[in-house]
Each structure stands twice: as C-alpha cells, then as structure tokens.
Design brief:
By secondary structure, the protein is mostly helical. It has a single domain, classed as Protein Yjbj, Chain: A (Orthogonal Bundle). Helices cover 72% and strands 0% of the residues. The protein has seven helices and no strands. Helix 4 crosses helix 5. The protein starts with a helix and ends with a helix.
Length: 90
C-alpha cells in the first residue's frame, strides 16, 4: 500500500497506527490527520528515536498495511454483518 491510500483511509488507518504505536494519543492522531511527515515526527517525539528509524518503521508499516474491504463495508453499515451482529441482542 502506498501512503496516498493510507491518507485517504486515515480514519481506518489511525486505529492500526494506534495499535502499532500505542504511545500516540487520540489528539496526536487528529493532528497527524494522515500526513506522513507528521506521523514520523510524532513517533520520534513519543519514542525518542531518530528520524531515520521513525521513517523506516512507517515505511515497513505502510507496506504491511491492508484494509479488509468486508470490514470497511460493515463499518459503514452496508453489509448484512451489521444486522446479524445485533439480531441476538434484542
């Protein structure tokens, strides 16, 4: 995946970013707003690492990042999964 795709799906990607870099706050993710340089800078600050190391981590993360299209549909309420998931709770 390339960074343009990550930026375009930032709401979904930010959850995965938070899983990977747990020291980032929700406020950090809002400020980052899908901007790669902002993410690198925040990782540097929170983890006390060099810019090159932060860039390497972000590049590796970006290459490995995948979005599950079925989950995307469910998140937006377009799939039957959402209905099935709530039918037994009445």
């Amino acid at each position: 995946m390339n960074w343009d795709q990550v930026e375009g799906k930032w709401k979904q990607a930010s959850g995965k970013v938070k899983e990977k870099w747990g020291k980032l706050t929700d406020s950090d993710l809002t400020v980052i707003g899908g901007k790669r340089d902002q993410l690198i800078g925040r990782i540097q600050e929170r983890y006390g690492i060099a810019k090159e190391e932060a860039q390497k981590q972000v590049d590796e993360f970006t290459k490995a990042l995948q979005f599950d299209s079925a989950a995307d549909e469910t998140a937006y309420g377009t799939g039957a999964e959402k209905v099935r998931g709530t039918s037994g709770t009445h």
